[in-house]
Amino acid sequence: MQQAGDFPVLMQDCPKFGIVFIITKMGFLYMYEISTAALLYRHKVTDQLCFVSSRNTKTDGMIVINRAGQIFSINVEENNLIPFINSCGHIQGNKELSFKLAQRFHLAGADDLFVHMFNQKLASSDYAGAAAVARDAPGTLLRNQETINKFKNLPSTGGPAPILIYFNALLQTTKLNAIESVELARPVI
Question: What angle do CA 30, 136, 34 make, to 5 degrees?
């Protein structure tokens, strides 16, 4: 809820997380997710007028100075962003938003969402969708031998073999890891 007579005075984007920070005349910090304009966080950070800000290049956050000379460093806690969004009931579609952010910015904290989405796509025979989820999952959560074995054992739906769909999805935008490289070369050897 915005205060009467309050308005934005400073704004800073945070491209590492897809967030924009806004500081108002009355000292409120607002954090919005850029693609949906969802309000993620609101908190009063000072009683003094903030008059200058700069991007913190080390953290992709915001450094702010108010009229009293106080310096504030405003940052996103990378490991807590996705769990925080998941727990926020005030954000409409918070689960989908946290999944999209984790996928787009390779953020931790959405492992359960990735596994659920992957299994859901496999169950509906959307092999390309499942391969895309595996490709975008953090680390080796879904890019492992177990996932390769699942694709190897899937029935063909008349098109390319599911394992080829998986490798095609990976090779379109990323490099194969060691396990994937061996599995792709195995038929040739």
Answer: 20
